[in-house]
Write a structure and sequence with these properties.
Double Stranded RNA Binding Domain, 5 helices, 3-stranded mixed β-sheet, 5-stranded mixed β-sheet, alpha/beta, 8 strands
Length: 201
Amino acid sequence: MSQRYRFENLFVLIIVCVQLIASGCTLKPEDKFESKPIYQTIPAIIGVSVKNSFRLSNYKHTLVDVEFGESSVALFLQVFESMFKNITELPKWPPWKTYKHDQDAIIELDSSQIDLTIGDNLINPDVVTVLYTVCLYKPDGEQIKCWTTQATKSHQRILVEYTLVSSSIKPIVEGAMRASIADFMKSFENDQAVQKWQSSL
């Protein structure tokens, strides 16, 4: 057995052992923007509904758990505060479609998903994809429009950060979340269905 072969096997063993020790880490993405999102405010009073599945959407991996549902809700609420004159988060019960509303519309955080691929060596990068679906409704429950946005970020860890999975993927998780939310804001602003709704206010 060559010395190089023994060294490579030892290196792999060390990496595996350290990863096992580091397993069970929980990553909580930042839930506040560094600065207030910029948006031309729509003069509307909006009710915000958050589906439970959206709020509880997380990702579990042997090396790290990503609790991104609550952080996503917090970021969207900050965005909605910039987008609309006034927002009110609706209670979980009773379902908002079962009673009358004084708001101009209801916006619902419908679904969220995060996919994470952990790089398995020093060649394959960590890859994060975040997907959100957000829907706008008239107060009577009639759907105006739904938007599904997706963003992907990646990072190639270098040797010194190979075992630092949680701290390494945190920036790309947050980057993908913000990019997907920014895509939603742009899509919402330019949508003809939204413009038609605005003209009726």
